[in-house]
Design goal:
This protein has helices at about 5-15, 65-75, 140-155; strands spanning about 25-30, 35, 40-45, 60-65, 90-95, 100-105, 105-110, 155-165, 170-180, 180-190. It is α+β, with helices and mostly antiparallel strands and about 190 residues long. The radius of gyration is 16 Å and the shape is globular.
Amino acid sequence: MKMFNAALNALLKTAPKKDVRYYLNGVAFADSIIVATDGHVLTAIGVNGKKAADFMRHDAVILADHDVKSIQHWLKGLTTKKVKADQIDVTWCVADGVVTFTANNAYDLSLAGTVEGVFPDIARVFRCNNNTPKTTDIAFLVPTMEKIMFTAKQLSSKKIFNLNIAEASAGVMVDYAPLGDFTVQSVLMPARF
């Protein structure tokens, strides 16, 4: 996946830093999908045709934000004047609690999961259903929308996104027009007043 560094930036923006729900304090890596959530916004990036609903939480490895930043540092070390970090093709494989990253089919980096616990069941979040009557009476906090705008700027080819509003209690699915051969989706949970 090219644009991997930008994807990590978007996920780090979504992930909390010091949430009491410790299993949220990082990015979850599963085969072909990476996910982060702060409980209000969930961002999932998939490759090989995978989407957020394909995420298997029990197979995922959660890496803390400092480990994700070390991946970015590793990528920066592979850059040259002609090759920028987002031009490097990165794949990853998850096995036995370890994520192995491969850059340009040549350079490997392996990191063990650093956050204990099981990532939330994001399939519950994806209740957006086209059969549900549409509503427009949903409120979102400004910081929540800022995270969506940041992701769109990082990973959307046209800097636009589509909102699929299914029902006021279920949240809103955000589909981006990605820059590469990957899918980018977010779910916004409505603000509770």
